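Quick one: structure tokens for this chain, please?
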Amino acid sequence: MCKTTTYACGGWEIKTLICSVACVLAIAVPATATVTTFDNGPEGWSGPQGPGGNSFIDPNFGNTAPSLRTQFSDFGITFRNSTNPGFIGDYTATPEVNFTIDTYTAQLNFLGLPTQREFIVELRDFDNPPAGYPWVSVWASLGVLNESNPGWHTWGVSIPDTSMIDLPAGWGGYGAEDPNTFEPMLPADRTFTDVLAGVDQIAFTTFVPGFFFTMSDYDVAVDNIGAFRVPESTTAVIVLLGAMTVVRRKRQVN
């Protein structure tokens, strides 16, 4: 914005042009990234263990090697982390969060026949769960594990606004049941952002809330598990004030 002020001084006309220029400079602040490549061990991640098989760090099998691999027979499989602060805690501290994971499905069959399972990311809050529920959670589908689709695959999902009260598109809740449809839902006293503020465990699992599954044989590896907490851009406003004076002879009026 510019403003012109005119002064008369004898036979001269003096014009001062004062301009203020506002320059807005957006400074990108990098995301806080936590990525487990399994080069330094499990870093809090574990897979299923028990009579059905086991999970282990495979040094020779990974998208960039090694990987966390499970060979297990059960109704489903879960890779979980409850101790790494990069994957748990208060996700509302930044306005956006992104999750990624690489998977390789070497085997997934039922009675020797290839089958498939939906694969989800689930953020679990163990504080004050409703009666009959082990936790309250929010979850989103990443894709489908299928041995007929070989090779490494990268899955990802985003939370564009961690302050949302209602579940964003593509996300579901767990901790209660819709009385009409019997679908899982968040309890009445919990919101999406409530759960995000106190995540005690993150899980990548085939146990989709509200579904039951048959016993199947799994040989699945995961690698490059990442959580990216994206802060807002830091905006610096610089105001430049400049004064330009124009002096010219006043026209003689006869």
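Residues 103 and 153 are 5 Å apart (CA to CA).
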